[in-house]
User: What shape does this take?
Amino acid sequence: MLLSGGLDSSTCLAIARAQRWRCHAISFDYGQRHRHELVAAAAVAGAIGVAQHLVVEIDLRSIGGSALTDTIDVPKDRDEQQIGGGVPVTYVPARNTIFLSFALAWAEVLRCRDIFIGVNALDYSGYPDCRPEYIAAFEQLAAHATADGGRWRIHAPLMELNKAQIIARGLELGVDYGATHSCYDPGPDGRPCGGCDACLLRAKGFAEAGARDPLRRRFR
Assistant: This one.
């Protein structure tokens, strides 16, 4: 289970647990702008329940090329058309491929063939590695890249859900969204900036779901 501590991956974990999967969560300290998401990932893993939570260190700042791993400003206050209009500077080059590769390696060690990832192709910021074609291609790669071959399944249960539907499903399953973190450019205390794409999509999702974001109560 790829677990970033964000809204989507936390909901994905809750769905997997509701389906009675025994989950091993993997998070990444990859040189991102802040560590608040790692704190959130640990909190979510503890609250929902995992067999093990592994944090892998990777230095993607040495590659750069993203507002999350380089000295590039995070875009703020973009409208929906701008958010969905192309690949933004918050895209981290090959990030999901790198993360899934580590998850694949750990899955081999654990002798399991199922990997969960919380990507979706509706309310997202134009990232190319969040689409159904990408997930299908990685499944094919996994079959050719592992020691004993065979069929692998990359589960993406949020793929066809918009943010409001994701939130509604998570609330049904008792996800504490107050423990999650979405912001690309938070304050030192983790306070969401309110203007980055992730914050705007999160706010839109809660509004359309008719729910109040409990994270807002933490930073009144």
Notes: Residues 95-110 form the longest helix (16 residues). The chain has one domain: 7-218. The two ends are 32 Å apart (CA to CA). Helices lie at 7-18, 36-48, 80-83, 95-110, 132-145, 163-172, 197-209, 215-218.
